[in-house]
Amino acid sequence: MKRISTIATSVLSLCLGVLLFHGCSWTSRYDELVQAGRVHYEAGRYEESYKQFSEAGSHDHAEALHYLGRHHDLGQGVNQDYALAADYYRRAHQLGFARSTNNLGYLYLQGRGVPKDPEKAITLFREAAEKDVPQASYSLGIVYENRENYELARGHFKKAALEGHTAAQVMIGKYMVSGTGGPQNYQEGRRFTRMAAEKGDASAQYNMGLIHTNGWGVERNSQAAFQWYLKAAALGHVDAQYTLANHYYHGNGTRKDFRKAAQWYENAAGQGHRVAMHNMGILYRNGQGVAQRPRLAFRWFRQAAEDEYGPAQYMVGVSYLRGTGVARNPQQAQRWCQRADGNGVREASQCISDARNELARLNRSRSNRNERRAENQTELADWLTAAAAVIGGIALIDAFSDDDSPTVSSGSCKDKARSRIGACEITTDYSTCTSSGCSNEITCYDSQDGGDGDQCVGFWERLATYSGGGETGTVYCDTDNPENYSEDIENVIEEICQ
């Protein structure tokens, strides 16, 4: 019996030795799989990393389960599946993997793959934060900021920042500079902000520019501010791009350069910055750094105006009022200037007044034109009636000896006009006109039956002249331009029958 106990003790000692110096063989193998999976994951080879993590995860390796959760959470190499992600995170959390505890809390906060439960999310965040997971402390800061508990938010942001969390360093820097959730501390705020900025965070770099622009805990320095804005702008920070463009435009901290100002305004405008859109309109209107193009200027103004930027709405209104880059339209000018006025643009009131005056002037002019047109139509109708009487009753009486005098038919205005004019047809044989001694200044008619009733009707000269709206018109019997007949007669009819 003693011999058996001695053997068992020896075996146990051997096993413990393996555990102490080499680890259990199955643990060592799956650690290696996870390490290989991380290499593939960080290189973006998600299908390969998923295979490695799946094999290790099937043996309840906590970190492998965490990464499997990330794959399904973010849709990396697999279909995005929040419920499956939550299951993997939960299994890793139960094995004590704190990062999964944090990620599971985020799913509960958002209600993705699990019922939405903010309080459960906070519990999970706290548990992970106590295990020094910086992201969990940062998540708590965001939760309390959204609940406007800035004091608690500040504490959690600071804890995460001290643990090296970049976004938390940006946040605590802003809180300290502004005095949010606690005392104002420019020096500490600048220190945390610089930590993040030197790690390449664009928001922190932009904030460093603001610190130097405004002299928050440092001497104001436009050149230092310019350099920080330049770094942030190069990383795509839209406010930095707009601010950098302003520096180039005004020569602040650098030499004035309209071309570079246009380049950075356009970059910011491309990201939806409405003031940058408006400023692009100014540059194209003035030809600063770009070719002067009023139509393109108007398009930039209109784009910013649609985004409810008051100064751009004013510029759209003025463009319509003056016809700059767009056709003049006082009605549109009034509408856009009223929108600008509603957004607090003081100059818009004058634009509204000018647009109303222009609309009133156009209405008066239109009314006068309509009155003149009515008078013209009345006089034209009188001439046609007189012509019909002469042609039908006197001048061509011989030609109509076998027919009744023409009458005005019923029907539309145009039908009646053509009936009156058609009492005689203009000759298509211009030799008749010439043989009858008619000059090109009066009209020669041929009777409808082709008889000898050709007549020179002088008063048509006046009608022909009048048909041009009071200007000299084409005499219908024009041997040089016979094609004028049908066109001019139809124009007269159109004018009468409007």
Which class do the helix and strand fractions yield? mainly alpha
Low-confidence stretches: 1-26, 388-410, 420-488
Roughly what is the average pLDDT, rounded to an integer? 79
- Rounded radius of gyration (Å): 45 Å
Order of strands side by side in the largest beta sheet?
1-2-3
Distance from N terminus to C terminus (CA atoms, Å) equals 128 Å
Approximately what portion of the residues adopt beta-strand conformation? under 5%
Helix percent reads 55-70%
Cα shape:
elongated
Number of strands: 3
Q: Helix and strand succession?
A: HHHHHHHHHHHHHHHHHHHHHEHEEHH
Structural commentary:
The chain is mainly α. It contains 24 helices and three strands. The protein has a three-stranded antiparallel beta sheet with strand order 1-2-3, with no helix packed on it. A hairpin with an 8-residue loop joins strand 2 and strand 3. The protein is elongated, with a radius of gyration of 45 Å. Mean pLDDT is 79; it is low at 1-26, 388-410 and 420-488.
How is this structure best summarized?
The protein is 68% helix and 2% strand. With 498 residues, the chain is mainly α.
